[in-house]
Amino acid sequence: MIASQNKLRPRQKLGKYRIERRIAVGGFATVYEAYDTIEGIRVALKVPLAGLMTRSSLGAFRTEVRLTAKLHHANILQLKNAGYIGDHFVVVYPLGESTLAERLTHRMATATALDYAEQLLSALAFAHSEQIIHCDVKPDNCILFGDGRICLSDFGIAKVAMRTLSASGAGTLGFMAPEQAMGRPSFRSDVFSVGLVIYRMLAGVLPKWPYDWPPPGMDRVSRRVGPEMTDFLRRAIEVGERKRFADAEQMFAAFRRLKPAIRRHRAGKAGPSKKDGGRANGRINGRAGTRTGDRKSGRANGRDWMKVREREFQKLHAKALETKSECPRCRGPIAESMSFCPWCANRIRVFKGEARFPAQCGRCGRGMKLDWRFCAHCYGRGYEPHSTRQYSDRRYTARCANTACSRRDLMQHMRYCPWCRTKVARKWLIPDASPRERRHRCTRCGWGVLKEFWHTCPWCGKAMGRGGH
Fold this sequence. Notes:
This protein is α+β, with helices and mostly antiparallel strands. It has helices at residues 55-69, 100-103, 110-129, 157-165, 178-181, 187-203, 218-225, 227-236, 248-270, 305-321; strands at residues 13-14, 17-25, 29-36, 41-48, 81-85, 88-94, 98-99, 142-144, 150-152, 284-285, 290-291, 325-326, 333-334, 359-360, 367-368, 396-399, 409-411. It has 3 domains: 1-95, Phosphorylase Kinase, domain 1; 97-270, Transferase(Phosphotransferase) domain 1 (Transferase(Phosphotransferase), domain 1), CATH 1.10.510.10; 355-426, no CATH class.
């Protein structure tokens, strides 16, 4: 045996890395969050169990690490470093926000599940084109990043662990193909595993062995994405490996051919809009849901996927964000506090919706309480208060940083103090966001954003790249 497996403690130094906390423990390795004291970034350290690090297996590990290092793909977790530090063999990766397994503890939108599915299939197809079998595709090995990206991790490493642990095959029960359990992994084994991951995202449950058809949750899958996608998943998770897709390349190509059928199904499920008299509001093109129809006129063919996402957004966040108005360009839901439409990036200089307070700013049209002296949104000219009475409000949630301010009460998403005109330095978050969503901030202004739904930061107008549409 080359090394002994000792637990690493918080604040312990391992070369240039300072251990901060233990993230996960598995049958193959322990994963730690660590701080790179040279580069000044946080990374994930995977320390394999000592039982795997025999002299006979070290050469195989080196071969697999070199092979994995060549997999340059946006959805494959890039290996940063690998080797011995002291008596520990350490594999270093970029640190993501969470795993797909953690994300699946909360409800997932259909559009998000389909986006993740496409990214995972793209990564696995690339690996198969390089003749690499993953052998352990599961939600715990899918890492989520703040830009909406999902990455497959542990390429090659899992295969070495499988060979070292048992001659009969190993993997993760629940996501492992039957032939892999018998020690005969193949590209079709990865197809089976990723098919179950996609099924879990769409159905909300994981089928258990034996895989009788239809498995639990299939009705939900059919309602969400249609019969064509149901047939696609059935082929992916067939018990007989010869009935499955030959590899992830073939599976990925089939998925991309299915996208128009999925869009048509979701459009039909959404139904006609009462507002536009039942006319469709545009089409989407490609993974990010780019609109190709004229949504304003409502003359495009097919139902706009964005409209479906907006309705889902309204169910989750309308009350907290007070998105009671519509963008004059795209008719997407917006709030009085927004300076840009998060759906189409339209600049909202003058708000023309229903103001939430009795007075209005003569410059930007936003509402004002009767005792405010300044507009809290646009730094407009001063006003004589309509009343000397100080109106209390449960929506005051913070304090002005100016200690000389006469009142100091602030509400969510105020840009300027309405009492002293001091610019608010606070970085506002989404009021009802989940713990994961609260970590999402605009890289320009630092305010909270909802990356699953929005294309544009509604506070400063910065494009956020691919959203959840």
